């Protein structure tokens, strides 16, 4: 899509962003007639810790809220979020820490940028691979989710006396047993993705498995069958999406959020509510709202379910009736939560309502998704680090939050962690190593520079997204924005670029929000300074950067000739190694990484649904790299990185990566894959038996003895099949884990995956 020039839009934006009074008049009132200002004043009297409700809407664009639209008459109807704008405080320069779902959610939970959490994108834990076979760069490895041992904001608030709950989209782990779900990370209650449902519905007052709508886990977000023009909600009693008293389809996650507030209103509570809306599938079960937006857009009821993206040859905009209905729906959810807080007596503050002592924070996990919505004049949308991908709506209601005001200070969602700590009066903890700044004062009317945990002023906000087809790093500093593209832009191969944009002028007025004009040449001093700072940041944080692809379109014959080739692979006991070319004429190999998996397709107990790869450092010598396999690892690949940043895999990688880029480790037939990890597991099993003997637990080791004997037999038989080896690994792993009293049973490699299926 060609970037539009919208000078008139930018002028309007500045007028809206700079005129606080526009939002303050007329005087806002709540639904029960109480002035917003009165509510604010009443909040001053409360000595109890405030409640916190955080609503992270999925993929909501920065001007999807009707009162925030700057380029024409609003199409979407969002009366409840408009009300939050009138009665609360709006942040015009709020940013997500990443342009996609999972890294933002993990960053919020940890209060750290993705470069420190290790989660850069969605659905991690895969082997590095090119976006296309000839793409110049290869995405680096990244973990699937938050590490189990990492503390979250829920951990901190729970210690501060809060009852904590997470409802709906988690996306911070869950592919393997080694990654946590909400109850593992400080939440007292969790209602989340289906692969954790068996463990995390821990309150039958909120989740009753016998209720008629028990299977309506994703609520109205669940994919419509067979398409988007059928399965609208009805008033039938057996309809899991039955129309409620408000004429809206029933939504299970929303129902759970309301129940959570009602049940736990007698204590300080923290609710992290993450609706699945307005993420795809772009659909609606609400026929009433769908028909309404068809009429507003001048469309007829579709004859087929194909999406409506673009009409009249103009730019993408608010032209999709499915998406419009979804925005309308999530706004209704927001209104229900606010109304409940207004109507419910506060048991901790007799004579007052919950709303008087509750902060409600609303934001989005990334920028709006093109072409479903309109990010104009911002460039791009979800999955890139230009403004359209990372600028998000941010609204707050709460005690002493000035009604109808606007804050222009740049903030990041990583700032919520230390801010929530202050709201909760939690103790400072330097061990948390937070990247976020405390914006408590900004919530309450301050317009000033943000302060980092070490007391220094925050000079810049960073993004690190070396993933997908939009590999980039970005840095916002004052009025300037620098974007580093790793040879990829717009989904195709391009020369690497380092771009500088002046998105605001020195007075703070919008200048180039579209990021159309690279001013690197006009401002060489700024360019040099920001380049130095950005590269220093990446280096100091050991940010993984993409590999260069030896098969890339721009690789010259000379470069290709200098890339060392792997000449052999071998294994001895629990050690694996590769040999490679070295010496004159060849690039020096500077780094080696072992990638291994524990549950390969198709032999894992979940039928191949959990294949996940992990990484560990391998040692590099002259012409050789080696590593000790983790216990129970079944398949491994050693990847080399040379001094020119080229990616050099050991031979099995050829079999691992199929033409459609799906990974299937079952294609590996070499003993290199299986036996070293099995040897390591046998060693660990022998150690576990000795530990059990020392603890006088011999009576409970027969299962381990049997599994060990079988493992040794399989290892001695070079003709053992992959299936037999897989079974032997699983049985021995399970036997070690069953000895819970010995330290070997806690080995992380044993506990990454369950022995039995999760569902």
Descriptive overview:
With about 750 residues, this protein is an alpha+beta fold. The chain folds into 3 domains: about 50-450, Alkaline Phosphatase, subunit A (3-Layer(aba) Sandwich), CATH 3.40.720; about 555-670, Sandwich (Immunoglobulin-like), CATH 2.60.40; about 680-750, no CATH class. About 25% of the residues lie in helices and about 15% in strands. The protein is built from 20 helices and 26 strands. The strands form 6 sheets. It has an 8-stranded mixed sheet, with helices on both faces. Strand 14 and strand 15 (about 480-485) form a beta hairpin. The radius of gyration is 27 Å and the shape is globular. The two termini are about 45 Å apart. Residues about 1-45, about 195-200, about 310-315, about 605-610, about 650-670 and about 755-759 have low confidence and may be disordered.
Identify the notable features of this structure and list them briefly.
single chain; 759 residues; alpha+beta; Alkaline Phosphatase, subunit A; Immunoglobulin-like; eight-stranded mixed β-sheet; seven-stranded antiparallel β-sheet; 20 helices; 26% helix; 16% strand; globular; disordered N terminus
Estimate the helix proportion, in percent: 25-40%
Side by side, the strands of the main sheet go 6-5-7-1-8-10-2-11
Which stretches of 5+ consecutive residues score pLDDT under 50? Answer: 1-45, 195-200, 311-315, 604-608, 652-669, 755-759
Mean pLDDT across the residues is 85
End-to-end Cα distance, whole Å, is 43 Å
Beta fraction: 15-25%
CATH class of the largest domain: Alpha Beta
For the secondary structure, the number of strands is 26
Q: What is the CA-atom radius of gyration, in angstroms?
A: 27 Å
Number of domains: 3
- Oligomerization state: single chain
Number of helices: 20
Q: Considering the protein shown, what is the CATH homologous superfamily of the largest domain?
A: Alkaline Phosphatase, subunit A
CATH architecture field of the largest domain: 3-Layer(aba) Sandwich
Q: Structural class, judged by helices and strands?
A: alpha+beta
At CATH level 3, the topology of the largest domain is: Alkaline Phosphatase, subunit A
Silhouette: globular
Q: Please summarize the sheet with the most strands.
A: 8 strands, mixed
């Amino acid at each position: 899509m060609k970037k539009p020039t919208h000078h008139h839009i930018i002028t309007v934006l500045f007028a809206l962003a700079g005129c606080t009074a526009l939002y303050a008049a007329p005087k806002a009132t709540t639904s029960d007639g109480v002035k917003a200002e009165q509510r604010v004043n009443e909040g001053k009297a409360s000595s109890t810790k405030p409640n916190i409700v955080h609503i992270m809407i999925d993929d909501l664009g920065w001007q999807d809220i009707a009162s925030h639209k700057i380029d024409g008459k609003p199409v979407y109807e969002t009366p409840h979020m408009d009300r939050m704008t009138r009665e609360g405080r709006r942040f015009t320069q709020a940013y997500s820490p990443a342009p996609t779902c999972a890294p933002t959610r993990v960053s919020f939970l940890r209060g750290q940028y993705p470069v420190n959490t290790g989660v850069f994108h969605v659905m991690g834990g895969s082997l590095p691979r090119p976006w296309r076979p000839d793409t110049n760069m290869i995405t680096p490895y990244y973990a699937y989710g938050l590490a189990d041992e990492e503390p979250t904001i829920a951990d901190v608030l729970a210690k501060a006396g809060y009852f904590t709950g997470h409802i709906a989209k988690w996306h911070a782990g869950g592919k393997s047993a080694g990654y946590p779900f909400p109850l593992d990370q400080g939440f007292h209650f969790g209602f989340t993705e289906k692969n954790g449902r068996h463990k995390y519905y821990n309150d039958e007052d909120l989740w009753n498995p016998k209720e008629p709508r028990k299977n309506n886990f994703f609520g109205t977000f669940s994919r419509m069958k067979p398409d988007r023009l059928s399965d609208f909600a009805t008033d039938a009693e057996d309809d899991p999406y039955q129309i409620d008293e408000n004429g809206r389809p029933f939504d299970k996650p929303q129902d759970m959020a309301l129940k959570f507030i009602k049940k736990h209103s007698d204590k300080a509570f923290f609710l992290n509510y993450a609706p699945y809306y307005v993420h795809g599938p772009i659909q609606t079960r609400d026929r009433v709202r769908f028909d309404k937006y068809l009429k507003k857009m001048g469309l007829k009821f579709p004859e087929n379910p194909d999406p409506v993206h673009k009409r009249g040859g103009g730019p993408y905009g608010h032209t999709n009736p499915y998406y419009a209905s979804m925005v309308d729906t999530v706004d209704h959810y927001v209104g229900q939560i606010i109304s409940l807080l207004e109507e419910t007596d506060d048991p901790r503050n007799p004579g007052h309502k919950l709303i008087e002592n509750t902060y409600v924070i609303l934001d989005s996990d990334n920028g709006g998704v093109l072409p479903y919505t309109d990010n104009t004049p911002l460039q791009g949308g979800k999955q890139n680090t230009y403004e359209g991908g990372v600028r998000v709506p941010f609204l707050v209601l709460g005690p002493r939050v000035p009604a109808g005001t606007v804050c222009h200070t740049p903030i990041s969602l990583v700032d919520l962690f230390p801010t929530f700590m202050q709201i909760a009066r939690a103790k400072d903890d330097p061990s948390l190593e937070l990247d976020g700044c405390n914006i408590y004062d900004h919530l309450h009317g301050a317009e000033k520079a943000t302060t980092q945990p070490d007391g220094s002023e925050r000079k810049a906000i960073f993004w690190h997204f070396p993933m997908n087809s939009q590999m980039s790093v970005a840095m916002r500093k004052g009025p300037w924005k620098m974007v580093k593209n790793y040879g990829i832009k717009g989904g195709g191969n391009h020369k690497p670029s380092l771009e500088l944009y002046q998105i605001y002028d020195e007075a703070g007025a919008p200048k180039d929000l579209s990021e159309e004009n690279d001013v690197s040449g006009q401002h060489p001093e700024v360019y040099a300074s920001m380049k130095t700072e950005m590269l220093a940041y990446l280096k100091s944080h050991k940010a993984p950067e993409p590999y260069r692809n030896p098969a890339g379109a721009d690789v010259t014959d000379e470069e290709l000739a200098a890339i060392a080739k792997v000449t052999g692979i071998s294994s001895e006991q629990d050690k694996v190694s590769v040999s490679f070319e070295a010496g004159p004429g060849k690039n020096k190999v500077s780094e080696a990484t072992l990638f291994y998996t524990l549950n390969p397709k198709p032999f894992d107990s979940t039928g191949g649904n959990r294949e996940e790869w992990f990484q560990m450092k391998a040692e590099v010598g002259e012409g050789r790299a080696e590593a000790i396999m983790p216990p129970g690892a079944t398949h491994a690949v050693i990847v080399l990185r040379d001094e020119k940043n080229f990616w050099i895999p050991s031979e099995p990688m050829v079999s691992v990566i199929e033409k459609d880029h799906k990974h299937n480790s079952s294609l590996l037939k070499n003993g290199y894959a299986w036996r070293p990890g099995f040897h390591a597991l046998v060693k660990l099993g022998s150690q576990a038996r000795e530990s059990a003997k020392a603890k006088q637990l011999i009576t409970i080791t027969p299962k381990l003895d049997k599994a060990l004997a079988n493992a040794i037999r399989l290892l001695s038989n070079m003709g053992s099949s992959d299936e037999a080896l897989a079974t032997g690994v699983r049985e021995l792993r399970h036997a070690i884990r069953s000895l819970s009293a010995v330290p070997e049973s806690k080995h992380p490699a044993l506990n990454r995956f369950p022995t039995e299926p999760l569902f």
